[in-house]
Amino acid sequence: MLENLTAQPADKILALVAQYRADPRANKIDLGVGVYKDATGNTPVMRAVKEAERRILSDQTTKAYTGLAGDPEFGAVMRDLVLGDSVPAERVAAVATPGGTGAIRQSLELIRLAAPRATVWLSNPTWPNHPSIIKYLGMNMAEYRYFDNETRGVDFAGMLADLEKVAAGDVVLLHGCCHNPTGANLTYEQVQQVIGVMHKKAAVPLVDIAYQGFGDGLDKDAQITRQIASSFENCLIAASCSKNFGIYRERTGILMAVAKDADQQALAQQNLAFLNRQNYSFPPDHGARVVTTILKDPALRADWEAELEETRKGMLDLRQQLADELRRLTNSDRFDFLSAHRGMFSRLGTTPDKVDALRDDHGIYLVGDSRMNIAGLNAETVPVLAKAIVNAGI
Ligand code: LMR
Q: What percentage of the chain's residues is helix, strand, coil (to nearest 5)?
């Protein structure tokens, strides 16, 4: 049987991780996979996470199953964190998922159940796992323009023009904040226009929010998601706790489905539980319990928010340092976009051969589409990267 298998396409982000690990150069710099690193290159366990784990370890009295949707308290605290009071709780169905990827996967499975012929529209570019999963599930997919390679900002006219082609009932996937891989984001006013077009087209929004708190702050980063949740009868929201709680390997995420009323919410909830059962039964609990413990305890929550804020400001500082250094070296404002971008990533907007040159000649690893993880930098590596960018003729 196994002889019938053919090799599957490698995930380009994860392939890069392996390539970086195999590189023997001591001064190599990893700006590939989206993992936050502090100034010493470590991905720390956040203080509040450590404390929550300590409490769970000492107080937990059972490891019996939760429910198919996970612990309902996790659903409630995440609904508040992501949606605030933008939509009444009784309209929101929610299931815990293994990470943000699990939430995306379950959202697509739900779409396939409810609207098997719908086309899912993705930004060009988007996180490579979006099209990969859609293709794997055999669903229809299309792209809308998003990134302007000249300005390194959003190609908003292109985006609106492409959204005009969306058919009624199609799904439009939007990044809630900190667009991955570009770092270029819609303004609040632009989101209003996007909502307008989507209403006109009777499209259904699917929001992927994986970096809440990494851009402009917890509430501001949730603004687009909340705006969408409050504007549509139905929408889907896939949220990840990997980055903002730094619990990557605990696989903690949530899928929320906003329904038009309580009856529809109950139906959506039943379907989401069914999908969890088909795919893995009960979702992982540890990370979800850590998040719930933190968000329900005012002191722990304040400490988590403070540490997240330090992380966010650290990334903004690194952006500014890199933009300043490149301004100095090139005597131009060509790289000022770096300080305007938000989140972990910025797309340099250069060619794959120059990305290869950065890796081969300087040991600097970017994803092939020239996405770099800003959080992989530190004060020492910023000038090294800036010089290499200039040397590579970017
Ligand atoms: C990334 O884009 O680097 C992260 O979301 C990690 C991943 O799973 O690809």
A: 50, 15, 35
Q: Kindly state the helix (H) or strand (E) to which residue 40 belongs, with its residue range.
A: none
13 lines ligand 1 (CB under 6 A): yes
Is residue 70 a contact partner of residue 93, using CB atoms and an 8 Å limit? Answer: no
* DSSP secondary structure letter of residue 248: G
pLDDT at 91: 98
| 69: nearest Cα among 284, 225, 240, 304 | 284
Residue in 11, 13, 208, 251 to alter for ligand 1 test, most ligand atoms within 8 A of Cβ? 13
Of the pLDDT bands very low, low, confident and very high (cuts 50, 70, 90), residue 40 is confident
Question: How do 119-124 and 253-258 pair as beta strands?
Answer: unpaired
Q: Which two tokens stand for residue 382?
A: 């910023």
User: pTM of the full predicted structure?
Assistant: 0.96
**pLDDT of amino acid 41:** 86
Summarize pLDDT for 231-266 with one digit per residue, the tens.
999 999 999 999 999 999 999 999 999 999 999 999
